[in-house]
User: Fold this.
Amino acid sequence: MREKLPCYASAAFGLEGLVAGELRNLKLADVKAENGGVRFSASPEDLFLCNLRLHFCDRVFILAAEAVCTSFEELFRLVFSVPWQEFADGSEAFMVSAKCARSRLMSPRDCQSITKKAILEKLKKALHLSVFPEKGPQLPVQVSVHSDVVRILINTSGEALSRRGYRTWNGEAPLRETLAAALVHLSPWNPSLPLYDPCCGTGTILIEAAFMASRIAPGIRRSFVMEQFAPFRTLPFSVLRAAVAAEAVSPALSVCGSDIDPEAVELSRRHIRQANLTGTVRTETLPFQQLTLSEPKGVFICNPPYGERLSDQKSCRLLYRDLHALLLRHPGWSMCVISSDPAFERSFGKRSAKKRRLYNGRLECTYYIF
Assistant:
């Protein structure tokens, strides 16, 4: 196994810079952000720590190969050039997925088939095997083809890193955990200030804020597919996990929220319990139009309804006006709101001090800071 591997951390558009910042804070080398992700170099141990620690990343990959390919023969040669024996012993279930865009190779099914064939042919030659039972642990491989450039990526995370493990029930229009963490990070909040989400839903923003303030690694409660890779099984995963878990602290925090929907609030309390944050994060059923807080300074962060359907737009825009009234009742506070409505500031009744384009899934949004 090579000491350092070329790697790639995928990210939603708008979050690449945040992921690059986290990788630099982890002292990783060759960090370079680009559209959709960040390149870097890492050891296998570093890869595991990235999966544990990264707040804003979708998945962490080993970048096994990359080249321009305009024919399936070139694709086969590229995949065959990868030293697959460094990552597999031949017992794995090879799970190959493919994405194709703006390229001469535009058949995901054919790309999958050729990639798998090339992997098995290379392992036959390198390991002198003739049979592949594919009954062992998964080895997920992704073929990404864009503008004739092919990347062969080995997924070390498995499920998306947004699956922290604490959210087992979803309310209406759930906010992905990675985006919720980004909203907290991009806001003016710090743990010395109260944080309040007046549209808390199932509590994702509040939980992610508490994780950050308490130095709880977002992936500490889940496993990663790389732990089952044959050459990696001797790595000290349990020791690394325990060391990261020991970094958690218990600061004095005021992280609270409310929602008009009692079912959503009940789900938020279940998630708070599952995140082991009972007593740290508090939620209640309350329309924010009735909310008045005693603290002179703090930060509101919320993800209100967007009114994507025309029938909902009028009620949502009235809601945005009410959010401005909430801010006026708390003159020492800041308010941070994400919305896809291009008329949000007009409905809110004030221009934001800062704004940033982000994506909630495939929906283009703006993050406003007042």
